[in-house]
Amino acid sequence: MQEEQPLKPANILNIVAINQGKRPLTMTTPQAAPLAPAQAHELIAAGHVVVDARSSAEYGAGHIPGAFNVQLSSSEFEQRVGWIVPADAPIILVTDTAAEAQRCVFNMAFVGLDQAVVGYLDAGIPAWMRAGYPIAVVPQTDVHTLQRRLATNGWHVLDVRAKDEWDEGHIAAAQFMPYTDMVPQLDAPAKLDKLPFAPDAPIAVTCASGKRSSTAISILLRHGYRRLYNVTGGMEAWRAAQLPT
User: Fold this and answer.
1) Which residue has the higher pLDDT, 26 or 3?
2) Which of 26, 119, 143, 151 has the fewest Cβ atoms within 10 angstroms?
3) Interacting residues of 204 by C-beta distance below 8 A, sequence separation 6+
4) Could you give all domains of the chain from N- to C-terminal order, each with its CATH number?
């Protein structure tokens, strides 16, 4: 029975503490402070966690190494941040605009994570690059290219959706692991060691639409995986192309 229960998010203790009045709930509109690239760089070196809230494509085109990608466009943005960011980790946001950074921190207040936000990268990735700091990239691949390379290039596929989505239909060659299993949760350790891939294996990561797969890739990159490809459009695009499941 317990295996069928959903995992508790890593920040559940924070939510419970707020509900019990043991930790203050933000009563005013929270605000994130702008951070110059040099400030952000120093804080990241000191252990602050970066949450890149831009689209999968923008993250793939260039991001701060080690950043988690959780798209603000997702209706589950704050919950997904709560799933993957270590409890009590100080957070730096990366967005395209200051207004988007404020939307992030406002949404995060619903799960008590606004208080973890130290600030946002002022002027975004362009400012980071102008300051001479490094970026990393994630190649994007379409479903037709994926199908060809499964047959000819020995690519692997990792499906990071929920179990019910997997059961409804998946790529025959795919391995399965929900992205939430890749990080430790309150009542379960991370399961990355269960993946049957070498760190240098070419892995195409898919979900329903390409958002959670990019989040999963950002986790895998932090654990030494190097040849990762985000499947744009995910299984929605795979089905639209009438490819087999």
Assistant:
1) 26
2) 151
3) 141, 146, 149, 155, 156, 157, 158, 229, 230, 231
4) 2-130 (3.40.250.10), 140-240 (3.40.250.10)
- Residues forming beta bridges with residue 205, ordered by sequence position: 158, 230
- Do 63 and 157 contact (CB within 8 A), yes or no? no
Using the predicted structure, report yes or no on whether residue 23 has a pLDDT greater than 70. no
Helix/strand/coil percentages in the chain, nearest 5: 40, 15, 45
What pLDDT, in 10s, does the model give residues 191-239?
999 999 999 999 999 999 999 999 999 999 999 999 999 999 999 999 9
Which residue pairs from 44-50 have beta carbons closer than 8 angstroms and sit at least 24 positions apart in sequence?
44/92, 47/89, 47/90, 48/89, 48/90, 48/91, 48/92, 48/118, 49/85, 49/86, 49/89, 49/90, 49/91, 49/92, 50/91, 50/92, 50/93, 50/94
Write out the two tokens for 154.
Answer: 């020995």
CA gap 15, 113 in Å, rounded: 9
Q: What is the pTM of this model?
A: 0.91
The pair of structure tokens assigned to 141 is: 């691949």
Considering only CA atoms, which of 181, 238, 183, 244 is closest in space to residue 206? 238
**Rounded to whole angstroms, how far apart are CA atoms 185 and 174?**
24
3-state DSSP call for residue 162?
coil
Token digits of residue 231: 């499947």
Average pLDDT, the chain: 91
